[in-house]
Each structure stands twice: as C-alpha cells, then as structure tokens.
Specification:
two-stranded antiparallel ribbon; 5-stranded mixed β-barrel; mainly beta; single chain
Length: 117
C-alpha cells in the first residue's frame, strides 16, 4: 500500500509468542520487542545502555504459526514490517505514553550471537 513506512527493528523478545486465532480462524501472534541502544563511552572505557524502545509487533497467518514454533522469550530477533500510527495511552500512575506498533512482514533470529538449525 502506498505511503506505508517499512522499518527494521533488532531487539529481544520480551515474552513467549502465544498463537491465537480470530473468530474467523485466522492465526495471529503478538510480540513485544525491546531494543536498547548501546554506546561506547571513551572517557570511562565502558559500554552504556541507552533508553529501551518497546515495539508491539503482530504477525498473521503462516508467519504467526512459524513464529510460535520457532522463537521464545529472550530470543534476539530481526523484524521488518509496516509501522502503524502510535497508540497513546496513560499508565496507572497517570503518565502519558505512546506505543510503537509494527505489522510483521519478515522476522527471524539474529545470528550475531546465536545459531539456528
């Protein structure tokens, strides 16, 4: 669809994928991916973590089934998809927040620090 923004996110799964179905029987899975930037501080010679960005991701049909069979909480993943408009909400303490949402086109394990069979 024209005008959609595709992005790639590299991060860790915050929860185990849970395969569910719509009322019409279409499989889907929802995931939370946490991406924390790291920078090297030359003054202290240490790596420092930045602020974690949370991205809510949704996969449909065969992709959802494959995700549920292949990935688990803590898995490092590379996700490509279509960015949806942010959802604004308030926390229980009244703090205003917005969540990023991504409809998954492609997802897989990051092979930088793991192997796949």
């Amino acid at each position: 669809m024209a005008g959609e923004l595709s992005i790639t996110v590299v991060g860790n799964l915050a929860n185990d994928p849970e395969l569910r179905n719509t009322n019409s029987g279409i499989a889907f899975v929802g995931l939370n991916v946490a991406s924390t930037p790291r920078t090297y501080n030359r003054n202290t010679s240490t790596w420092e973590d930045g602020e974690t960005v949370w991205v809510r991701c949704t996969a449909w049909r065969e992709v959802a089934e494959n995700v549920a069979q292949s990935l688990t909480k803590g898995s490092r993943v590379v996700v490509t998809g279509r960015l949806k408009a942010p959802s604004a909400y308030q926390t229980a303490s009244g703090e205003a927040r917005a969540s990023l949402e991504l409809e998954i086109e492609e997802i897989g394990p990051s092979l930088r620090s793991a192997t796949a069979a």
